[in-house]
Structure to design on (301 residues):
């Protein structure tokens, strides 16, 4: 399926969010309450649901775990390097750094269907391993900047960390989920994506990017160009199948997560910068993802 067709619904929802605030008289207070709902209820449910969908065995997926840890760690380091290289505003960097290493789970799963084989299952396993790492890193960055040293407390009490940790524990323990609970979590997760994108649209402001274009560009380049480039040698080094290599590259090539905006908004960051960066990265990914998939088919198959 065309990448453009996959990302178009996201932009229609972002546009609707902008229209609701600026043209149809919905208030900023309304969207702040929506952000609270997404942050405390919908996204934690989505994370738990996503992680528990595919059983994870640490023994069977050890090679994938190594590859995921290396790739995610590289993204976190590259995001941090923007500080000594560009010397950006600390608050802007704390909010934007997550856009370099977080990922759009649903876009990755949708595109994995075109790879065939067990690509979607591989993506689900990668997500299960990577979500705890990227969420801890993102919360740590924002908490370090805005919470006066209470970093560990903020990590332990963060709803996204709690949802992620519970999902991973539940999965590894192979605990059953009643059908009605699973369906409810799935529907809450669907709401999280849609409402989160509406909030992104309401936050969009080009005026907010003044003075921050260099660090925004850095994060987009890391997410869409450098991360996939790093994924290639990691995939070749790891003892994984060709289809798993291609899935790893796809996982590295998708744009950042929509929840990045909500996390910045709820933790005292700069959500306007994240909203614009996330939107630009998603647009550019319509060009970069097909290129990386072509490379994957020739180099990693």
């Amino acid at each position: 399926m065309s990448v453009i067709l996959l990302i178009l619904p996201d932009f229609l929802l972002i546009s609707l969010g902008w229209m609701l605030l600026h043209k149809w008289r919905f208030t900023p207070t309304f969207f702040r309450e929506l952000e609270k709902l997404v942050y405390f209820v919908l996204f934690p449910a989505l994370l738990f649901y996503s992680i528990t969908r595919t059983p994870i065995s640490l023994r069977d997926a050890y090679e994938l775990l190594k590859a995921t840890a290396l790739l995610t760690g590289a993204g976190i380091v590259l995001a941090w390097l923007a500080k000594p290289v560009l010397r950006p505003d600390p608050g802007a960097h704390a909010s934007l750094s997550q856009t370099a290493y977080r990922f759009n789970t649903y876009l990755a799963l949708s595109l994995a269907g075109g790879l065939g084989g067990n690509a979607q299952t591989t993506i689900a396993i990668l997500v299960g391993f990577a979500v705890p790492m990227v969420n801890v890193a993102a919360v740590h960055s924002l908490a370090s900047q805005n919470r006066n040293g209470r970093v560990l407390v903020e990590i332990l009490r963060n709803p996204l960390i709690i949802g992620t940790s519970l999902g991973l524990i539940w999965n590894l323990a192979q605990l059953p989920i009643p059908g009605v609970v699973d369906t409810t979590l799935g529907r809450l997760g669907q709401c999280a994506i849609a409402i989160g994108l509406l909030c992104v649209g309401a936050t969009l402001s080009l005026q907010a990017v003044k003075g921050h274009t260099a660090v925004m560009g850095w994060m987009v380049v890391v997410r869409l160009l450098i991360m996939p480039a790093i994924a290639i040698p990691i995939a070749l080094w790891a003892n994984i199948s060709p289809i798993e290599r291609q899935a790893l590259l796809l996982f590295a090539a998708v744009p950042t997560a929509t929840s990045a905006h909500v996390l910045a908004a709820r933790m005292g960051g700069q959500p306007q910068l994240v909203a614009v960066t996330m939107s630009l990265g998603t647009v550019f990914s319509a060009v970069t993802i097909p290129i990386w998939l072509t490379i994957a088919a020739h180099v990693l198959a």
Remarks:
- Residues 3-299 form a domain with the Na+/H+ antiporter like fold fold (CATH 1.20.1530).
- The chain has one domain: 3-299.
- The CA atoms of residues 21 and 61 lie 45 Å apart.
- The longest helix spans residues 271-299.
